[in-house]
Write a structure and sequence with these properties.
Blueprint lengths: L6 H7 L7 E7 L7 E4 L4 E5 L6 E2 L10 E5 L5 E5 L6 E3 L2 E2 L2 E3 L5 E4 L3 E9 H12 L8 H11 L4 H8 L3 H15 L4 H17 L1
Parallel strand pairs: 3-4
Antiparallel strand pairs: 1-2, 1-11, 3-5, 5-6, 6-9, 7-8, 7-10, 10-11
Helix pairs in contact: 2-6, 3-5, 3-6, 4-5
């Protein structure tokens, strides 16, 4: 008589699903709520200029202050771009250095960022929660359009409801996505719901 199969042996051999790890920067803010910026490009420029990939407007930050170079091997290198006030990692001034999890990056005399690696799911949760504070930076019209997206309306439906041209709605949404650092309507909807629940608790 065959012995009954031990169900635990099946689970022991089944590999756990792996989630992709991404790199990001944690930026401080005036209201004490950090902002998480996921690094998606091979080279990410940090500075106060409007053309910077990660814009930091604190005192002493150059227009193009430093850049982070991401290699295929999942390594990251911080490079100072001949900034006036220097780039520091964990208190030491650097011209170029490899970054490790948790490194603190000082851009000039005031701005401090942190280099982190997180699973994609965790990044989404942290970044969405941190971006709730940015909802107040939207104009009333942008907030209205964002709420309608969260309600499930398409751009043409939003345009019809608000008596706007469809391209005007698209332009507003592009600005909303940029301000809140979201990449999809799903992320925006999640953020709006978090913002609503945060307001109810306040």
């Amino acid at each position: 008589m065959d012995e009954p199969e031990d169900p635990t042996s099946v689970w022991a051999l089944r590999p756990r699903p792996r989630t992709r790890r991404r790199v990001a920067l944690l930026l401080g803010s005036g209201d004490g709520v950090p902002r998480l910026v996921v690094l998606r490009q091979a080279e990410v420029v940090i500075g106060r200029g409007e053309d910077a990939d990660v814009r930091v407007t604190a005192r002493g930050v150059s227009r193009q202050h430093a850049k982070i170079v991401l290699a295929a091997a999942d390594s990251a290198t911080l490079v100072d771009l001949q900034s006036r006030n220097g780039t520091f990692v964990n208190g030491t001034r650097v011209d170029a250095t490899a970054l490790r999890e948790g490194d603190e990056i000082a851009i000039g005399p005031v701005a401090v960022l942190q280099f982190v690696r997180r699973d994609e799911d965790e990044l989404l949760d942290v970044r969405t929660a941190a971006s709730v504070a940015d909802l107040s930076t939207l104009t009333p019209r942008q907030q209205e359009i964002a709420r309608l997206v969260a309600d499930g309306l398409s751009n043409p439906q939003i345009a019809e409801k608000l008596q706007l041209k469809p391209r005007t709605v698209t332009s507003h949404l592009e600005t909303v996505f940029a301000k809140l650092d979201v990449r999809s309507r799903t992320e925006l909807t999640r953020l709006i719901m978090l913002g609503q629940s945060h307001g109810e608790r306040a």
